Amino acid sequence: MKTPSKNTTGKFTLLLAGLFALNFASAQNITQQQQPFQGVVGKTLADSKESWTAPIKAPKGAPNVLLIILDDVGFGASSIFGGVIRTPNFDTLASLGLKYTNFHTCAICAPTRAALLTGRNHHYVHMGGFAHTSLSAGFPGYDGRIPSDKGTIAEILRENGYNTFAVGKYGLTPDEDATDAGPFDRWPLGKGFDHFFGFLGSQTDQYQPDLVEDNAHVTPDGRNLNTQITDKAIFYLTRQHKAAPDKPFFLYYAPGATHAPHQVAKEWSDQYKGKFDGGWDVFRETVFANQKKLGIIPANAVLPERNPDIKAWKSLPEDERKLYARFMEVYAGYLTYADNEVGRLITYLKTSKQLDNTLVYVIIGDNGASKEGTFNGDIDRSVFRNPVSEEENIKHNLEKIGEIGTPDAKQTNYPLGWAQAANTPFKYWKEDANAEGGTRNPLIVYYPKGIKDAGSIRTQYGHVIDILPTTLEYLGINPPEYIRGIKQDTLQGTSLVYSFKDANAPSRHKTQYYYIFGSRSVYKDGWKAEVFHHPDVIDLSRPKTGTVAGPAVNNFDTDVWELYDLKTDFNERINVADKYPEKLNELKALYDDQAQKYHIYPFIDWEDVLKGRIHHLPKEQPASSQVN
């Protein structure tokens, strides 16, 4: 064997030294890891010098962070944003904080939550659809497995001296990992939370939930889940405050409310007896007027026409009006009850003298109001298991009207007419990533020690990916280069801190894409190009066998793009694609660029899902393929 020359050996030695130095420097950037020993080790204690690892501590007086996100609440449901459903605790927080009226989600739950927790676009963190086996796909944007190089807000704050807790809905654990055998790296505790109490899936029964505490399933106690998670949150915070009163906390509070099943005690739903007898048309007009009065929407705004598939309330037979009104009474009680549970949490923070130093975000909905309740409402999913005619579905629901909202009704969800009403002043609803009705949700930011413009409105464009960078900037924390030894990818959100003191500051979040099951859009500087994709599949909102969501145009190339100038037409009433073809082409090209950059391709829609075109994760998966 040829002996290396002295010069070659020297270069090799320098290379090793360089690699060692690089690794040492990298280790220095790994927060919350054992620090390198700084002392001296001699042969005896007398000629040695001790060195102790200093624990990571948050800066003295660092604010607590409370992040609240509700489920399936339309823009126009809550009273603070003009709705007729009472949310007094949200009203109070908003009156002492800021109301963001131009804030956006991803149009459906798991993508929104993945983007919220990571500060990155949902396809970029592999959550283009869901973590459910039946709705994920084996592509980088869709496999439902958030990579470790895209750390969560919980991981970052824990590495900076915070205790971290999560209660309620998680929704980001792959189905195949969600047993008590794990693996647990994609359970909440594997993503930065010290403790978790809630459910891992997208929805659960509110009285018999699929309940998890930390890394194991537990038996629910029979009470409504919202009460259980609030009690557990207060327990976690009380225990921590007693043990380490100066240590800040991060609490992610994510109730299942108001996702189906709408289940709530009659003491709440009966508060709304007769309140919705006027129907969804009157509801929309009332809410629209309230929103103008409150300054939530422009004074010159026009209410879009009722969706042509939804019947006028006055045209419905009396028994149908009675049935549909009861569905909405239950929903309204459910939302007011959820607000009350948030109020219990806020009251605890106030009485324990922690509220004044707590930065609170309230996102009222992870998407627009749900269209999943069919045209006639749903009580027990029998319409989906055994598709029936509209007349049979109405008859079935009328026979069970007394069960709506009770523990016996396993799928209570209101009719589609109420979904459009709850989304006032927008068109369309949940899952429609093309439309503001699917993606625009209210945001409240509360922190009395630092936000002085109490009760005012902010119109800057925002998105759930902005919450993480907003929090880091406000707390004075730099995005980490490493988390637990793994080099971190870049954030994609834009901090909203610039808007806290200046209501007139121009928006800094300039571009944002949206995509859910084929429906898609892209926003840039007040312009929005969008496609309402209609695959030839059975529409979940329609009970009648064979009814399809639209014309058979599953070929994405034939989808018709629309263009809206949101600066003058905020609720997308006037399609100006023909008037500004160059602007439309510019935005279509931008969408293609975003699709390649953030792993939106290949396009996947409901037809691909329901017709079995997605090849799901096999039961026996090689270990190497689990790593991403």
TrEMBL record:
The keyword Ubl conjugation does not apply. Keywords: Calcium, Hydrolase, Metal-binding, Signal. Residues 63-477 form the Sulfatase N-terminal domain. SUPFAM superfamilies: Alkaline phosphatase-like. The keyword Ion transport does not apply. Its EC number is 3.1.6.1. CDD domains: PAS_like. Residues 1-27 form the signal peptide. GO terms for molecular function: arylsulfatase activity; metal ion binding. It holds the Pfam family Sulfatase. Transmembrane segments: none annotated. PANTHER family: ARYLSULFATASE FAMILY MEMBER (PTHR42693), BLL2667 PROTEIN (PTHR42693:SF43). Belongs to the sulfatase family. This is Arylsulfatase. The lineage of its organism: Bacteria, Pseudomonadati, Bacteroidota, Sphingobacteriia, Sphingobacteriales.
